[in-house]
Amino acid sequence: MYEIWHDNDFDLAHWFYLNSELISQDVTLRQIPKTNSSRDLLNHLKTDSDLALLPAIKYETPDIILIKKDKKNKPTIKLVVEFMTHTPQHDHPLQRFTRIYGSAWLGIPSILIIPQKKEKLEKGQRDSYKPTIYRANPLIYHLFIKTFEITKTPTLLLMWPEVDGYLKYDKRHPTAPRNEQDISIMFDFVNSLIASENTDLIVKNHIEKQKKISEYKNSGNNYELTSGGVIPTKKLIGQFKETIPIEVSLNLLKKDESFLYSPQGLKSSASAFRTDPYAGKVCAFDILFCRDSNGNRYRNLVLEANKISSQVKGVPTLVNHEHQSSTCPFLNSTSLDSAKNHFKEFCPYTERKQQRIYGEIPDLVIFDDKGTYVPRS
Amino acid sequence: MSQEVKEYSITYGVKNFLLSKNWDVIAYNPPGSQGTFTIPNPSKDGGYRGQTGSESPDVLAIKSNVVLVVECKPSFNQDDAEKMKRLSKNSKKMEILDILIRRVCAANEIQVSQDLLYIYALAFQGERNQEKELGYIKVEVSENFDITHLPAKSSYENFFSATLFPASNWEKRILRLFED
Fold first, then answer.
1. Are residues A246 and A151 in the same domain?
2. Which of A126, A377, A169, A179 is nearest to B60 (CA)?
3. ipTM of the complex
4. What is the DSSP letter of A33?
């Protein structure tokens, strides 16, 4: 049997069921817990096999998670899908990338669906509105191509069908895309997974098509970034010499180069430490600038947390407690009783998104008050 | 059932009710979904990139050049009623809405041939309020419809019933659009 877990959009999960070969299977539609707090998780997940969901929501919750359960084998996550209807320039798709990143490293196939182009009516002179078309830029395509190549896991970027920048919706399920063009590729892929058929050809054809469209090069792709760049590690240490502790410097110097990501918008009137779109960009820059073709990190990834203090009223912004990863249900298959015991101690994946992502993915976080944070390896 | 799940169920019931009467649903924004349609705020500063003052009606549907705007809540909500009245009187916002609707309809092969007529309704559970300028869609949801855990099936229509109470100013031609 299968379970389609949804992030509160039941109708989207229903559409996913009706448009795939899942319609001939025994399927249950289930809601993903609203937050990653241990309380929400334990209120929502009722059996040992329900814990199979957790690896897919370790960093952030995708829109759809497909899980196969049978009596003979352990439940397995077959696919993760994220949908986006916003304009597709840079930040919006990157914001969603944490779901793809988390899944790809675990060998779980994943799909992000975005509009290739979308028109937005924007304020022009005086009271007029001018239509502006936004398009997905090559960096987004390259990110998915490279994630696939280094994790060897299908990570597909698919385009929501549109006409002149206006999206085509399913007639009966209007939060879902029309099942044509790239969306039919998704269902071919889903149906192959269900039939336990090889999906290599579907993935290869799609990746090759996107390499061509986005003029992807195996090396030397250039991007104009305003908030980060590659610098020699020695220079980085010189730049923050009064901040980075000596033992951290020595560790960083094992790699000649570092990627310093220094966004300006982490603090806003609405949030003391923003994650959107910055957490997704941390994951994206890791893949694009810090990993070799085998997935090894060959450059340090450093986040300069501008305007963020290392602690507020004596409470650390990111904590570095001991985590028993061997008993963690986000990382290992375990029982509900064992998970309950695990959650009595510190588990980073039940904490805020800042801890889950900034607390794990960079090699170093440098705060505004010269405090630093180094994630446990 | 949480308030959010109730609101989702009512919005879902309205969507299904309108589809059953052959309306095209062109915007559907139940709580928890990322939304498919936003009317930008015409008075916002050109340099501001946020969404403050923009509006996303829960349901927008169109049939024979009549556009129905619906706000859904578990019970009567005066703020929703006021919000719709404000929208209907905001000529700049209505101008933008008109442009957006025509473009979304063009992309989705929905015929729009002349001026659009806008009508408004609230959807909730319980008895009708005194708000007669707005239509009312009374939605009943079976307690067995629990979006948190349901066996998949082809349709969930038997979990819902919806009854339309027209606004006092709706003409016969509008009422006919809700007939089977």
1. no
2. A169
3. 0.94
4. P
The domain spans of chain B are 3-176
List of residues 6+ apart from B170 with CB closer than 8 A: B119, B135
Residue A338: inside a domain: no
**Predicted pLDDT of residue B52:** 59
* Chain B contact probe: residue of A1, A7, A14 with most B CBs at under 10 A: A14
- Angle CA(A106)–CA(A229)–CA(A82) in degrees, nearest 5? 35
* Each residue's pLDDT tens digit, B12-44: 999 999 999 999 999 999 998 877 788 887 766
Q: Is A20 within the bounds of a domain? A: yes
Give the pair of three-digit tokens for residue B94.
């209505």
- Verify that A91 and A176 share a domain, yes or no: yes
One domain for residues A172 and A297? no
Q: How many residues does chain A have?
A: 377
Question: For chain A, how many structural domains are there in total?
Answer: 2
Helix ranges, chain A (H): 10-18, 38-44, 91-95, 97-105, 138-151, 182-194, 200-213, 233-239, 246-252, 278-290, 336-343, 353-357
pLDDT of A127 reads 66
Q: How far apart are CA B172 and CA B75, in angstroms?
A: 28
C-alpha–C-alpha distance, residues A214 and A300, integer Å: 27
| Alpha helices, H only, B21-77 | none
Q: What are φ and ψ of residue A199, in 5° steps? A: -100, 5
Q: Choose the closest CB to A162 out of B32, B107, B148.
A: B107
Residue A80 lies in a domain: yes
End-to-end, the C-alpha distance of chain B in Å comes to: 31
pLDDT given at position B33: 83
**Which residues constitute the domain of residue A17?**
2-213
What pLDDT is stored for residue A66 in this prediction? 98
Q: Are A44 and A170 in the same domain?
A: yes
Residues B109-149: tens digit of each pLDDT: 999 988 999 999 999 998 887 778 899 999 999 989 999 99
Candidates B106, B108, B150; nearest CB to A29: B150
On whether residue A220 sits in a domain, the answer given is no
* Substitution target from A22, A30, A47, A169 for chain B, most B beta carbons within 10 A: A169
Q: Cβ–Cβ of A172/B99 closer than 8 Å?
A: no
Is the domain of A293 the same as that of A156? no
Say if CB B80 and CB B71 are below 8 A apart.
Answer: yes
Q: Pick from A147, A180, A213: which residue ends a domain?
A: A213
Pairing of strands A76-83, A110-115: parallel
Q: Which residues of A touch B26 (CB under 8 A)?
A: 169, 174
Q: How far is B130 from chain A (nearest CA, A)?
A: 31
Same domain for A124 and A47: yes
Give residue-wise pLDDT tens across range B75-108: 999 999 999 999 999 998 999 999 999 999 999 9
What one-character-per-residue DSSP string does B86-146 give?
Answer: HHHH-HHHHHHHHHHHHHHHHHTT----S--EEEEEEEESSS--S-TTSEEEEEEE-TT--
**A249 and A117 in one domain?**
no
A193: its two tokens: 């997974």
- Does A162 contact chain B (CB < 8 Å)? yes
- Are residues A144 and A11 part of one domain? yes
pLDDT tops 70 at residue B166: yes
